[in-house]
Amino acid sequence: MNQSNQVEIRLRDAKPNMTRTERMVCEYVERRLSDIPALSIKQLAKKSGTSEASVLRFCKTLGYRGYRDFILSLSSALGSLDEKAEEKKYTDIRPGDTLETIIENVSFNNTCSIEETLMVLDKGQVEKAVTLLSLAKWVDWYGLGASGLVCQDAQQKFMRIKKHCQALTDSHSIRTAAAILDKEDVAVLVSNSGTTKEILDALELVKESGAKSIAITRYSKSELALGADVILNISTPEVTFRSGAMGSRIAMLNVVDVLFSAVASKEYDSVKEYLDRTRGALNSR
């Protein structure tokens, strides 16, 4: 996945949660991408009908240190546009597709969701999450729908290393569990959009309990992303037929695999016995 993809991922994923003026800058940049490196911050502000402060906020919303950092990244991206033009694109579900086409498109979309997630996943945040999970007395995993399936997968994995945890996948159970956490506990809140009301309500209860929170969510300035103690971003395309739930689920499952492997590696001497015992118990069947 080249540098041009990375810039477009940031533009695409951050745009829904931008302020009005930030979005004005974003839309101008998207329309005139190749012209932007030649513009000063003052010129871009004027052409987008905003202010220099708005342009700077736009750059920081995308995760860049400032305007110069954004321009350097964009300039590098534009150097690979010819290559990018030949790349396969995300494809949604379409009527009449052959089975061969469906197999190829679904596999491609899922692969790209993982690759794009690697671009926005902050290794420092992953390290913080691993530390919290390692030290936690108890871990709750909260998610609804497809995100709930991710939580169930996490519970199955972490139980293998005797990490006391549970997956809650309905709003009543989530609220009840969040209300009784304490300061030694951790809640992992899983939501692609970062705006699911039930998950945001749970985040408030987690904060009131004094427990730590880890969010697994789309790369954006969502309420969940801004409110959690640790943020683990994923990236997946928006599509019209809800096949995006496939990509986001795959990306989230990959993040869970990373967390599990990192915690197991960190505590390997103490968890090896549990891994061997659980493998033996399953093999005996």
Q: Strand share of the residues? A: 5-15%
Mean of residue pLDDT? 88
Element-level helix/strand string = HHHHHHHHEHEHEHEHEHH
Q: Rg from C-alpha positions?
A: 21 Å
- Give the structural class: alpha/beta
Count of beta strands:
5
Which bin fits the share of residues in helices?
55-70%
Question: Helix segment count?
Answer: 14
- Span between N and C termini? 42 Å
Descriptive tags:
single chain, 285 residues, alpha/beta, five-stranded parallel β-sheet, 5 strands
In short:
The chain has 285 residues and is of the alpha/beta class. The protein has 14 helices and five strands.
Could you characterize what this model shows?
61% of the residues lie in helices and 10% in strands. It contains 14 helices and five strands. The radius of gyration is 21 Å and the shape is globular. The model is unreliable at 81-86 (pLDDT under 50). With 285 residues, it is α/β, with parallel strands linked by helices. The protein has helices at 3-14, 20-31, 41-47, 52-61, 67-78, 81-85, 99-120, 123-135, 146-159, 171-179, 197-209, 223-227, 244-266, 268-283; strands spanning 138-142, 165-168, 185-191, 212-218, 230-234. A five-stranded parallel beta sheet has the order 2-1-3-4-5. Strand 4 (212-218), helix 12 (223-227) and strand 5 (230-234) form a beta-alpha-beta unit.
SSE inventory with pairings:
Elements (H helix, E strand, L loop, with lengths): L2 H12 L5 H12 L9 H7 L4 H10 L5 H12 L2 H5 L13 H22 L2 H13 L2 E5 L3 H14 L5 E4 L2 H9 L5 E7 L5 H13 L2 E7 L4 H5 L2 E5 L9 H23 L1 H16 L2
Parallel strand pairs: 1-2, 1-3, 3-4, 4-5
Helix pairs in contact: 1-5, 2-4, 3-4, 7-13, 8-13, 9-13, 10-11, 13-14
